[in-house]
């Protein structure tokens, strides 16, 4: 009896440059297990083409686009389709652009001048772990936040501190339960509590907080 083949992860490219889209399309289609379902020129075009019975799993999203840019599109997706993973793929490497996209809820951010191998790594990490941020982006974000005045650290329980330490590893959330000796639902509730308490909206926000406040130290 033959094992049925696993369906490919559906990717959508949202970028206003046609030649760039075509290049990324060929690249992604060459990655094993991934396939570009369709393309869009901007956020509004993406929304118009979106079909309920053919939703993508990952979106490669540019920032600077006409009609509806990457910030607006990311916010719309976070509100209406939070389960769709969004990877920002942009030339913008300034702190403000990166932090703004993170606040809009993207799951990952890499630069357009990244190597193809990093794009493939980003897609696979998004699929398995839910988030991916290049080292360059992480350095910029941490540098920006460290230059700002630190807020008073709220009271954190021992469990929340251990949770933050695990967040800084590459382990998926589902691995936290046995390590912390808690029920998987408690993992979800702890994460949501920390999002509210620390006023962050993503895993990278938790990581940056942990680093800034000495809960996790970069060796």
TrEMBL record:
Gene3D superfamilies: 3.40.50.2300
Record bears the keyword Acyltransferase: no
Molecular functions per Gene Ontology: DNA binding
Keyword vocabulary terms for this entry: DNA-binding, Phosphoprotein, Transcription, Transcription regulation
Residues annotated as domain Response regulatory: 10-127
Domain HTH luxR-type stretches: 149-214
Residues modified as 4-aspartylphosphate: 62
GO biological process, one term: regulation of DNA-templated transcription
Keyword Electron transport: no
InterPro entries per UniProt: CheY-like_superfamily, NreC/VraR/RcsB-like_REC, Sig_transdc_resp-reg_C-effctor, Sig_transdc_resp-reg_receiver, Tscrpt_reg_LuxR_C, WalR-like
PANTHER family in the record: NITRATE_NITRITE RESPONSE REGULATOR PROTEIN NARP, TWO-COMPONENT RESPONSE REGULATOR
UniProt name for this protein: Response regulator transcription factor
Provenance organism: Adhaeribacter soli
């Amino acid at each position: 009896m033959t094992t049925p083949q696993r369906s490919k992860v559906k990717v959508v490219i949202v970028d206003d440059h046609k030649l760039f889209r075509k290049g990324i399309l060929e690249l992604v289609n060459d990655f094993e297990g991934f396939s570009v379902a369709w393309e869009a020129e901007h956020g509004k075009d993406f929304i118009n083409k979106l079909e309920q019975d053919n939703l993508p799993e990952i979106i490669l999203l540019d920032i600077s686009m006409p009609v509806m840019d990457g910030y607006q599109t990311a916010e719309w997706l976070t509100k209406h389709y939070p389960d769709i993973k969004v990877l920002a793929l942009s030339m913008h490497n300034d702190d403000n652009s990166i932090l703004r996209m993170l606040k809009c809820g993207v799951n990952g951010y890499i630069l357009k001048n990244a190597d193809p191998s990093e794009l493939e790594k980003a897609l696979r990490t998004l699929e398995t772990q839910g988030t991916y941020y290049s080292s360059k982006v992480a350095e910029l974000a941490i540098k920006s936040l460290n230059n700002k005045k630190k807020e008073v650290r709220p009271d954190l329980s021992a469990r929340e501190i251990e949770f933050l330490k695990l967040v800084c590893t590459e382990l998926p959330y589902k691995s936290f339960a046995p390590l912390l000796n808690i029920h998987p639902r408690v993992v979800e509730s702890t994460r949501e509590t920390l999002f509210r308490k620390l006023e962050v909206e993503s895993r990278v926000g938790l990581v940056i907080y942990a680093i800034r406040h000495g809960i996790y130290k970069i060796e």
